[in-house]
Amino acid sequence: MAFKCSWSLLLPNYPKPIFHYVGTSFLALHRNKSKHESNQTAVVKFTTTLKHQDDRSLPFLSRTTTLKAVSGDRDNPVSEELIIRQERDHPASFWNDALFSAKNQVDETQTKAVIERLKEEVRSMVMNKESKPKDKMILIDTIERLGLAYHFEKEIEDQIAQIFESEMENEDKDSDLFTTALHFRLFRQHGYNAPSSVFNKFKDDDGTFNEAVSNDIQGLLSLYEATYLRYPGEDILKNANVFATCNLNQALPLLEPPLKEKVARALIQPLQWCVPRVEAHYYISVYAKEESKNELLLKLAKLDFNLVQNLYREELCEFMKWYKGLDLKSKLPYARDWPVEMYFFGTEFTFEPQYSLARSFAAKSFILMGLINDTSDSYATYEETKIFLEVLQERWDIKKIDRLPHYMQIVYKLVLSAYEEFDQEMSKQGRSFAVSYAIEELKMLVRSYLTRAKWCMGLETPTFQESISIACVDSAAPGVFSSCIMGMEFASKEAFQWLMRRPKIVEATGLHTRLSNDIASYEREHNASGFPSSSIDFYMKDYGVSKEEAMGKVRELAEDARMEINREWVSTKGVPREFLKLALNYARFTFLCYNQGTDAVTYSKTGIKSYIEAVIFNPIEIDE
Asked: How far apart are CA 556 and CA 6, in angstroms?
């Protein structure tokens, strides 16, 4: 049985071997280089016990493996170390460089003037004292879905607070299903602990939802969206979700556009778990088809979207200059070449124009974290990863670089250089302390990578609970958040200290990301060595269940994490909402990329490519 493998270092002066499975060893039969070498072979033995399974590939096909090799003739054997390096076949970047230098397609000066005028008109609409609460809430919901709420944050918060206070004083108010669900959703979205008991009036005596509302499609859609704001243990909303989902699916074939389009989209991508700019682009197109649309709102949304997109393109151009300066393609060809995707992630965590620096830091940190992950996850040996961690931990110092192999020296230099750049920027603001916190988060992330490397190589086998105990750090969420917070000028030391304490909303976001990724990437990344390496594997091992049962449980736990995020979003007080939004939007992005059971990040050409084009490259057409 012969096997092919990826590699970079072989025994000196030997051509590429073919490995043959022989019990617990491998016989490497070399092509002859000379008459003197005609009878030479190399017996290769794994340094760890191999448990071969007939239906799986061999360990050195799943990650870099260190082997002990015996070469030379049989009378004079020479023991040498053989490193077979695994280079994962990451999809290549498919973005045209011309996109990064294209001129802006919007006249910014003229557009800004029009936007300012329209904003004042919309502000007056929001503050109109004559509007009924239902109409005011519909307006606020529309503004938020169109991506305009960041212009009117104070005005919207004031209106929500007034309406919430009024409704809590009149709990028995007779409202239809659409209105009740809309108000409930908006209250919770704005941090108010609206009671789910408001839906009891739509239930029969036996506890089931009244069939009388099963034909109210607008009401059902509003109810469906509201159920995704539920907390752990809120059975009334869980049952409401089942009821609404069933009835909407049944009605879908009979609906007319644009309602049909809205229902179909919601059943795949509920509003609570939509990322802001992707949702804004989508909803602008849907809102334009509605007969009751407000032309003023629609025009403002289009102009504002295109103006913000201009800013993103400018930021991306600057980021690409930085990225190309790293020269990763030639220096470290095993690393992912996904700079556009990395920048796009930042636009979905902190999309508002004022957070340019946060997006820049986030994008650069994603590149560095991805590079370290690609290095430790498959290319480096366990010992090399361990030394890399030690060098990072001992001292953030270029003098320690000699302990690392050459390719890791390149990685280390890039990391130090980037954080020196961050420090220079923070020094201008008098906030150099921010960089030290970001460095600590990076160190913790690398430690989690080392732990995962032990699992993949079979050096340790954790329980399921032990495996998810590092999920928060391993998901890179805290590392990304620290980079974003570093780029927010108002963020003090207390913000980083809050993050380092691992508040529940951050823990839940990290767990949700880790579990969702494990499900979506299981078939692609399943450890071919036979050693359990993901939460799904560990759950199967601990509870003796099938892959399908384990995936079902892990999917359930990911949903529980989303509900915990909802609860913490409402219950967390005394923390700026900007920091909580990082966790919420991170979870939203995870949902967008992995909820369909596929990895839309790794396979971005068929996954998130259309979202990237919509948010960054393709302006919305505006009728004159």
From this structure: 37
For range 413-427, the mean pLDDT: 96
144, β-bridge pairs: none
Q: Alpha-carbon distance 391 to 385, whole Å? A: 10
Instruction: Return mean pLDDT, the chain.
Output: 85
Q: Lowest-confidence range among 185-189, 315-319, 423-427, 597-601?
A: 597-601
Dihedral in degrees, nearest 10, Cα atoms 170, 173, 179, 180: 70
| Separation of CA 359 from chain center | 14
**DSSP assignments along 3-21, one per residue:** E----S--STT----EEEE
What's the pLDDT at 484?
98
Give me the mean pLDDT over the 136-149 stretch.
98
Backbone phi and psi for residue 508, each to the nearest 5 degrees, phi listed first: -65, -40
Strand partners, 44: 26, 69
**Residue 56: pLDDT band with limits 50, 70, 90:** very low
Beta pairing partners, 42: 28
Tokens of 499: 């993050």
Residue 231 sits at φ, ψ, to 5 deg, of: -95, 165
Distances (CA, A) of 464 to 292, 472, 532, 537: 52, 14, 10, 8
- CA 240 – CA 202 distance, rounded (Å): 10
**Could you tell me the residue ranges of all domains in the chain?**
2-84, 97-298, 327-617
Q: Binning pLDDT at 50, 70 and 90, where does residue 529 land?
A: low
User: What is the full DSSP assignment across 176-188?
Assistant: -HHHHHHHHHHHH
Q: Helices marked H in 327-400 — which ranges?
A: 328-331, 339-349, 356-374, 382-394
Average pLDDT on 175-193 reads: 97
Backbone angles phi, psi at 79, to 5 degrees: -90, 125
Tell me yes or no: is domain 97-298 CATH 1.50.10.130. Answer: yes
Distance CA 498, CA 227 (A): 29
* Percent of the chain residues past pLDDT 70, beyond the cut: 82
Number of neighbours of residue 3 by Cβ within 10 angstroms: 13
Neighbouring CB atoms inside 10 A of 8's CB total 13
Pick the CATH number of 327-617 from 3.40.390.10, 3.40.1160.10, 1.10.600.10, 3.30.450.20: 1.10.600.10
pLDDT of residue 2: 30
How would you list the strands of the sheet with 42-46, edge to edge? Answer: 2-3, 18-22, 25-29, 42-46, 65-71, 78-84
- Quick count: other Cβ atoms within 10 Å of Cβ 50? 18
Q: What is the dihedral of CA 29, 32, 38, 44, to 10 degrees?
A: -30
The tokens describing 376, both together, are 């430790």
- The DSSP line for 33-87 is -SGGGTT--EEEEESS-----TTS--GGGTS-EEEEEEES-SSS-EEEEEEE---
Inter-residue contact 299 to 344 (CB < 8 Å): no
pTM above 0.85, yes or no: yes
How far apart are alpha carbons 448 and 443 in whole angstroms? 9
**Distance set, CA 206 to CA 80, 199, 203, 259, 495 (Å):** 75, 14, 8, 31, 48
Closest CA to 588 of 566, 604, 571: 566
